[in-house]
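Quick one, tokens below:
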């Protein structure tokens, strides 16, 4: 059994010009954890997850995924992680089925296996009726479904997901949540960003909050619910407590 964390980040910084989008972030995510990563707009969530995905280069600090250092072991790492980026990196002029098969081949699956898993995932995500439609014709929710399906095709150990439920209807979101919970029960680790606190509260067993590029809270969900009245109350108190909007006379 692996004893190294799924994610180990130390003193991570990302500077754009004279502004630090991520400022000395340190974080450890154990294996088999459903981890929620929260923060207000502009807090550094997407920048952090882009660095974890290898889509942005840190200014300083270190990242280890599944016990392997980034970026020196990036190829080995990518073979074992599933990605659902915020701006889905899809080939819009492929069909959903072609894209899934392509992703499977990129992860080294034999042609027959990639094709069969592609078909099975289209059915599982209730997209079999859209399998011949180009991704450019998909709605945002359908693109999220196909991105989620692609993240599963090679059975990864670690999932990195930036707003995976954004634009997805209630039926699709329920299907995706159940699938992710099954992955965690089977030993996978999920690192998830979301603005929907109810989703995080239901799914995650540990939560961190980032604000102005720094971690301001990192707790087990059970402790959070027991001690402080739940996730929403904690989130608003930590990142919004000092912000008191002025009342409008006409409102």
């Amino acid at each position: 059994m692996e004893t190294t964390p799924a994610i180990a980040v130390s003193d991570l910084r990302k500077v754009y010009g004279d502004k630090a989008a991520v400022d000395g972030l340190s974080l450890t995510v154990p294996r088999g954890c459903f981890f929620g990563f929260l923060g207000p707009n502009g807090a550094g969530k997407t920048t952090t997850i882009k660095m974890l995905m290898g889509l942005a280069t840190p200014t300083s600090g270190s990242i280890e995924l599944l016990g392997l250092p980034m970026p020196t072991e990036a190829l080995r790492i990518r073979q074992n992680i599933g990605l659902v980026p915020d701006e889905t990196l899809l080939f819009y002029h492929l069909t959903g089925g072609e894209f899934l098969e392509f992703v499977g081949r990129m992860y080294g699956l034999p042609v027959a296996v990639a094709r069969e898993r592609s078909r099975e995932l289209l059915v599982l995500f209730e997209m079999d009726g859209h399998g011949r439609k180009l991704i450019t014709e998909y709605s945002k929710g359908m693109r999220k479904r196909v991105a989620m399906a692609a993240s599963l095709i090679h059975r990864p150990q670690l999932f990195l997901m930036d707003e995976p439920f954004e634009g997805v209807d209630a039926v699709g979101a329920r299907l995706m949540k159940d699938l992710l919970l099954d992955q965690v029960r089977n030993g996978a680790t999920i690192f998830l960003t979301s603005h929907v606190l109810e989703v995080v509260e239901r799914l995650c067993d540990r939560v961190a909050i980032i604000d102005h590029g720094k971690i301001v809270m990192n707790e087990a969900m059970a402790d959070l619910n027991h001690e402080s009245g739940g996730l929403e109350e904690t989130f608003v108190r930590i990142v919004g407590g000092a912000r008191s909007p002025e009342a409008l006379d006409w409102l």
